Here is the input.
Amino acid sequence: MPRLQDAVFLDLFAGTGGVGIEALSRGAASATLVELNDAAVRDLRFNLERTRLGDKAAVVHGDVFKFLAGTPRPHDIVFVAPPQWRELWDRAVLDIDARPEWIAPGGLVVVQCDPKEIHDIPLVNLERQAVRKYGGVAFVFHGPKAIR
Here is the structure.
């Protein structure tokens, strides 16, 4: 919660926007929500309108990996919650790791996945900081590597 206050939030694989909208409602300054699916984007835009949070949000209707190949802008929190079991979370984190300009100093990348999907990936600029498991859902937290 404290990290959300005035945060610049990036929601990758945003679906209907639940996580990004929740971040905004809890004090994030802005949110960019990236989603490819047409129906989900329609619902996402409706949900932003309904919650009156659309003025703080940017909706990107497109592919997450094309978005990450674009010009980076630093975010305090990047939330990655792709469809499960498609090896997408690790690809997204590796893309962010390769271009650390996506993360603001002290920023955080949070992955939501099935606990059985968690595995080590070769990171250069980021490192796994914590894993929290709640039944069939896990949250994996990555941050900038500590200088040793």
